[in-house]
Amino acid sequence: MGFGQSFSTVFGIAESELRKLGILNPTLDVDARLFIDPFLLPHSKHAEFNECAFSKYEEHFTQIYNLISLSDEEGDKAWKAALRQFQFSESKGMSGTCLGYSKTSTHGHAFGPKKAAQSLRWAKQVIDLGVKDPEMFSSLSLFEDGIGADLISDMIAAITIECIIKFNHRVLDELNQTVQIPVEEFNLRGHQAMLPRNPFSNHRDPVILLADDILKHLPIMDDPKQIPQVVEGNEKLRDRVNEHIGQVFATKTKRDKEHIKDQAMQNSAAFQTFLDMLKLLERSNYNIYEDPEGLLAWRDVAASTTAINKLQLTVDTSLPRLERINKVVESILAQFTRLVENNRLNRVFYVKDKPRKEAFAQLLFYAIASSYCDAADIGMTAEADAGVGPVDFKFNDGADSVLVEIKLSTNSATVTGYEAQLGAYSKAERAGFGHYVVIDVGKLGKKWERLTKLRTSNVEFAKTNFIHLVDGSLKPSASNRK
């Protein structure tokens, strides 16, 4: 079974049934780059989230708020009590939501004492400004480095797990009216749950289904250019933003968010205005059905592509093992290039003529390549780490391995990656061969010439490290050609 297995595929459910019930169709063998946005909880159409989960969330952070307000100094009794409330360990089974930023698994993270203390120091600053809104904690990831939206998402899931279990029991009962989904008993943070088991988990994790209307891709402040068009529709808020947060409507780049956040921390009125702005801006969930970022679309593209375009891999057993693996990898790369350049696979790299993120191309290649590897009995892993950072893919058969790095031409590190990254990986992984694949989706410029020059200037390195250029540019349709 290839990589990129969805819940609907594994359990034999029509994806339309999940959509009708408002359920995310998770990928069971890799995280979806989505997170639970606490700002979206009160706007969900599901009572388990707009009532139960939002109530649990408010109650939890109101307690933390009150404790910090009582604290006179870091380390006193009230501070320690707040610190305990803020920490949560990674509990068995909680990675069953299949959300986050891992390419290789669905395992989550914990909110340990260091991050909890960091969060409380920030919260103390905000409370000392005079802010009295417990929802301030929803904006934490925007202010503190190392505390990302995925970590906040994991924390929200832990706090509201009782409500999430209720949601799962209800929707599973509804799904079981058309197809019988096998379930097992799991203990999730002290709560018993009857859930399906994830067959791809090495830790006997369950599958935890989530509502599609509580999920976000990136916080709104990762693209502050959206602020003016949304806020201008609310005259009172617009006036407050202009008064308290300064030139927010002049935002041009992501860097401007630092300036906005600095101004938000000036006084209580500025912070409350910032928070109210976020509450308005964050009401829209990520549309998983249009999927503009391709966070889920890659798996269907890969499945349909490999089903139509078979690859008969001939493994030459007379070759040494390492060369045999490399021949398989070269065949897969050649097939991938044909699919992109000649079979119109290039179109999926774009949304409205703008290139998607590099992660989409990497996951798509992984899913396509893994299906071909299954037939050749070659192992393949993603984002293997040998102490020098992640390599995109490692093909192996025992101790021997061949590495493949996928880059889009839009990546500013396209050139430096070839020599610095792939060279380091090859040494650390002791790989006999390495392949550096650049997919041209625009902004290639002189990058390919520079890559070629780098390779030819290092003869020994070039013997085992290869570069490949795949033309992923959009072509005019036949009717538009002259």
How would you describe the overall organization of this protein?
By secondary structure, the chain is an alpha+beta fold. The chain is 45% helix and 12% strand. It has 18 helices and 11 strands. A 5-stranded mixed sheet has the order 7-8-9-10-11, sandwiched between helices. Helix 16 (414-429) links the parallel strand 9 and strand 10 (433-440). It starts with 6 loop residues before the first helix and ends in an 11-residue tail after the last strand.
Structural key phrases:
45% helix, single chain, 482 residues, 18 helices, alpha+beta, two-stranded antiparallel ribbon
Short description:
The protein has 18 helices and eleven strands. The protein has 482 residues and is α+β, with helices and mostly antiparallel strands.
